[in-house]
Amino acid sequence: MTKKRGFASMDPQKQREIASKGGKAAHQKGTAHEFTPEEAREAGRKGGQAAHGRGTAHKFTSEEAREAGRKGGRSARNNAGANNNPATPQEAPEAPAPIEAPAEMIAP
Fold it and tell me: Are 51 and 57 in contact (CB under 8 A)?
């Protein structure tokens, strides 16, 4: 059996602290990776597949699923009618801000 060395031998809390410092420094320096919406979608899809494969994915109750659907429906209805008022000047919607990866997810 191979013995863990260096970073791998540290307890998870210490690893998180070090990774967090690295991530904060990269953001201040302007060199941190920022996910595009497509990269974020792909990462979320992979994470969901992995969680389902391990059996650790959140299982929605029927009530939670109904509530999520209601929220999504309200949001879609509110946004759909927002620019349909001819008396209101139309503006281009803002692009969503890029999603930044936690430092521990970025390969060196």
Answer: yes
